[in-house]
Amino acid sequence: MQSELLVLFFVLGLILSGGAIVFSYFIMPHSFNATKVEAYECGIPSKNNSWSQFNVGYYLFALIYLVFDVEIVFIFPWGEVLKEVGKPALVEILIFFFVLALGLAYAWKKKALKWE
Amino acid sequence: MGLTEILTMSHELALIAALIILLISEIFSDEKSKYKFIPLAFALILGAGVVGLIFGKTGIIFGGMYQNDALRMAMKLILDLATLIVFLQSTEWIKHPHNKNRVLEFYLLVFATLIGMNFMISSGDFLMFYLGLELATIPIAALAAFDRLKNNSAEAGIKLILSSALSTGLLLYGLSMIYGTTGSIYFSEIKELITLNSLSMLGMIFFITGMAFKISLAPFHFWTADVYQGSPIAVTSYLSVVSKGAAIFIFTFVLYNVFGATSAIWTQILVMLSVITMTIGNLFALRQQNLKRFLAYSSIAQAGFIMLGILGQSAIGMGSVIYFLLIYIFSNLGAFGVVAIISAQTGKETIADYRGLYATNPKLSLALMLALFSLAGIPPVAGFFGKLFLFNAAASQGYYWLLFVAVVNATISLYYYLLPVKAMFIEKTDSPIATFKAKPYMALSVAICMVGLVVTGFASVIFEYLVSVSSGL
After folding, report:
1. Taking Cα atoms as reference points, which of B452, B281, B437 lies closest to residue B371?
2. Does A106 contact B23 at a Cβ distance shorter than 8 Å?
3. Do the Cβ atoms of A9 and B201 come within 8 Å?
4. B159-177 pLDDT, tens digit each
């Protein structure tokens, strides 16, 4: 076992990750601005603290949105190879749609789409 | 790729079909008719096992990502059987009014984890292995937090997800190092390319650490007791048997196959892990009063014994591990079944509550006694033969002092396994648990376990079959 290499590996890892932080500290412009310390630098002043209650409906909507967002990610490469692969590709994407539709139907059944 | 090749993974396809059938029945059922689908879940898991048995073929598909052979098929069937027993045991708990909105979700989540485990068992490269592992882990966190109105259950869920996030991180870091040194993620290629250099050994150690979390080997066992105690009993038994069994199988396979060339290193690690795990599991189990927590520490100690079998490093080693897992399923699920029956009836879960149980419920007491005897390894129940073959496998490689430690630990474990037996048969109390008749499904699950305990011990053909199919590895 070359244990020197192992030590070198850890030392290099420390230097690379720590060095980046130290180096950027030295070259960055040190100017302070109140907006910089905010959680979201989106221009709208944030208020209250983060331990507040919010409607769980937002969360459910985000989850359902995510399902269809991921669907798009799969459909684009599928469209690209559809002509080459032919019929099997069509069958496969239909199975995929079917499973996704089941997911939406389940969310519907559980009243996740209802805003209360 | 033709249809016949796809049929290699017929077991997984059957499970996926079962999951979709359950999802459709969930969508098109109303509040009251849901309970009618509970027997459907039993039928589906049985059906998946039968399909896997009949149509399952050995072979390698997806360019080596997925492989199936007789040993893997046997392991999948064992997991199916264990899941069926867990389903039978969960009927009373799932019918509780607290769970009325999510009866079928329990079965859906269990099927999802089972699919993940099957893919993990059949994986031919680290990518498939990782995907299966994740699919097996994430729904379990939801299952652990199933009794969401109980703080304990929510705590169990969050602890499980945090510890598995950490362990998965370690595992992936290790796998990235192995990829870095060998340039491949396929098991068969890494096996040829791996050499004894510091980086790949570091990767292997991270891999072992990550898996040790999943199998709850000491010193990575801290999440186990809290999660086992907080989760509903059905989920605890599923975690301690099915999930652990699948992880142990693939752990053994990867160590033997992928890291076969570097066994000089990992055997040393496993020896240490085994000694620490057996000792810590036993010492903590000694003073537990809650039976779920008691069984959690006992399952940690049992994992330490399983490491002895892995150290066998041969077909006999692999065969003895799987054989022990099969027996462990019957003994642990038998014990959990009795605890579940009594907990569903009376809500009592501590050893002190079991005083005088033999006078009021003799059948349940005898079943629990047999299961605990099997866990402790007292002949003639199967647990004795399971431990015997594990010790045999370790002895064949000359780990005699480790065997000595294991035998001392087995003796210590006798003491605490006999504590509940003493409470049931000898100790007297003024207010024992009243006589009651167990619900048919739950009684059936315990009966299956008892038959299994007696039969697997004496049917040497099972052990011989497992060893013969392991030899192809």
Report:
1. B452
2. yes
3. no
4. 999 999 999 999 999 999 9
Strand partners, B67: B60
Interface size, chain A vs chain B, as Cβ–Cβ contacts under 8 Å: 27
Indicate whether A47 belongs to any domain.
yes
Our count of domains for chain A comes to: 1
B69, B472 Cβ separation under 8 angstroms: yes
Closest CB to A9: pick one of B24, B26, B199.
B199
**Structural domain boundaries, residue A37:** 3-109
**A53 assigned to some structural domain:** yes
Compute the nearest-CA separation of B228 from chain A (Å): 29
Question: In this complex, do B197 and A2 lie within 8 Å of one another by their Cβ atoms?
Answer: yes
Q: Which chain B residues are Cβ-neighbours of A106 within 8 angstroms?
A: 23, 26-27
Q: Phi-psi category of B398—alpha, beta or left, where left has phi over 0 and alpha has psi -120 to 50?
A: left
Whether A106 sits inside 8 A of B202 (CB atoms) is: no
Q: Is residue A115 part of a domain?
A: no
Tell me the Cα Rg of chain B: 21
Cross-chain Cβ contact A9/B24 below 8 Å: no
The count of structural domains within chain B is 1
Tell me: the pLDDT tens digits for A18-61?
999 999 999 988 887 777 777 777 777 777 777 878 788 888 88
The reported pTM is 0.89
Set of chain A residues whose Cβ sits within 8 Å of the Cβ of B199? 5-6, 9
For residues B175 and B270, the answer to whether their CB atoms sit within 8 Å is no
Cβ neighbours for B211, distance < 8 A, ≥ 6 positions apart: B167, B171, B247, B251
Phi, psi of B59 (to 5 degrees): 160, 170
Interface test with B, best of A3, A67, A106, A108 (most B CBs within 10 A): A106
Q: Which two tokens stand for residue B433?
A: 């648990």
Run of H or E including B221: none
Percent of chain B scored above 90 by pLDDT?
55
Q: CA–CA distance from B217 to each of B129, B240, B257 (Å)? A: 20, 12, 21
Strand partners, B350: B290
Residue B331 DSSP label:
H
| Other residues' Cβ atoms within 10 Å of the Cβ of residue A26 | 6
What is the ipTM metric for this complex? 0.77
Q: Which two structure tokens, joined as six digits, stand for B299?
A: 């399952």
Query: How far is the C-alpha of B421 from the C-alpha of B13, rounded, in Å?
Result: 44
Gap between the Cα atoms of B50 and B462, Å rounded: 18
Q: Is residue A116 part of a domain?
A: no
Measure B199 CA to nearest chain A CA, in Å: 7
Rounded to an integer, the average pLDDT of B29-39 is: 82
Q: Quick check: A105 contacting B, CB < 8 Å?
A: yes
List the CATH number of the domain containing A81: 1.20.58
CB atoms near residue A78 (< 10 Å) = 15
Rounded CA separation B256/B243 (Å): 20
